[in-house]
């Protein structure tokens, strides 16, 4: 059997005996929507859900950063803005805010990649505030005592339009929807306070904080409340999209934030949450190519999704381009310095939470439970220093595989669940 696993802008060609493969997991077949169909849904939805008096309202359009390039903001954000302009809204009343959360600011030369050339040339685009205290506004405290600070320009807006994808998320259960508000446009300290709910006081991971889990997940519950705090006395429209198992957009909808988000979560599960009969001895996975695997830090989502269908101490071949490197210095440093001490790191997280530390904590747990080989643009020495194994020959790797396993070509988009 010949298969291809995408790595950056290239592909890794693998030849594996048929009798070694239990299944190739690509999700359920669902009709894909064309760009023109999605544009139509966006325009119609905005016109349907535009509040009265829109011509006199300040509008903030919240969009993803470059960790969500698959959402094709370069194509669809201009459609949002042009629809508003067709309704008579002035460009002076529209601001586009990039929901960077705690990520690095996007440079101006990246704006057209995120929001299209038309918007980059005609609309004010700015990064959310992150650590810039001068651009943060305190809006209240959640039930879980999270002190919520939000980007000033968003707080000043009357109408919020959120554009962004829905996908499985290791902390929030599902990314998308309310997550573009919090953590998307929130302050750094507030985000860390929310995310600290992922770790129990004894330094262990909270069992309800995981992919596809919303109810009973303290992270999600806190995000919902923070979003509602922000939207008090505002109107909001959510433009939701979701990708199928091969990374193509199959779902697009426009409507109220929470109901549109929940409907999207159900549709994502139907397409991408795949039940398999048993765990495999190995898994060969790709993060999905250049739109999702630019850096190791973000590519680990694929690893988190795939790990639960591999037997303990089984092998995982993890393919991710990582053309931009590791992606987070703290994440890299922790993997190198705490690689054999996940319990010590858990205690540190309980005392002072930090998201890159937490991602490293979860990666270290996987590296402890499985035999993970990383194929990327990182050097052999860098790969091994981060705790992953390296191979110089994919042919030898495949030849040495024992038992039977799974192939997941687009593991960031697929959440496989083993029945036994």
- Placed side by side, the strands forming the largest sheet appear as 6-5-4-9-12-13
Instruction: Give the CATH H-level superfamily of the largest domain.
Output: LarA, N-terminal domain
Mean of residue pLDDT values = 94
CATH class of the largest domain: Alpha Beta
| Biggest β-sheet description | 6 strands, mixed
Round the Cα radius of gyration to an integer and report it: 21 Å
How many domains is the backbone divided into? 2
Number of extended strands: 19
General shape:
globular
> Which structural class do you get from the secondary structure elements?
alpha/beta
User: In terms of per-residue confidence, which ranges show pLDDT below 50 for 5 or more consecutive residues?
Assistant: none
> What count of helical segments does DSSP give?
13
What assembly state would you assign to the polypeptide chains in this entry?
Answer: single chain
CATH fold-type name of the largest domain: Rossmann fold
In percent, how much strand structure appears in the residues? Answer: 25-35%
CATH architecture descriptor of the largest domain: 3-Layer(aba) Sandwich
Euclidean distance between termini CA atoms: 26 Å
- State the helicity in percent bands: 25-40%
Structural overview:
The protein has helices at about 35-50, 75-85, 110-120, 150-155, 190-195, 220-230, 255-270, 295-305, 330-335, 340-350, 355-370, 380-385, 395-400, and strands at about 1-5, 10-15, 20-25, 60-65, 95-100, 125, 135-140, 145-150, 160-165, 165-170, 175, 235-245, 250-255, 275, 280-285, 310-320, 370-375, 405-410, 415-420. With about 425 residues, it is an alpha/beta fold. The longest helix is centred in the middle third of the chain and has 16 residues, at about 255-270. Helix 1 (about 35-50) packs parallel to helix 2 (about 75-85) and helix 2 (about 75-85) runs parallel beside helix 3 (about 110-120). About 50% of the residues are buried. The protein is built from 13 helices and 19 strands. The chain is globular. The protein has a six-stranded mixed β-sheet with strand order 6-5-4-9-12-13, with helices on both faces. The two termini are about 25 Å apart. The chain folds into two domains: about 1-25 and about 275-420, Alpha-Beta Complex (2-enoyl-CoA Hydratase, Chain A, domain 1), CATH 3.90.226; about 35-245, 3-Layer(aba) Sandwich (Rossmann fold), CATH 3.40.50.11440.
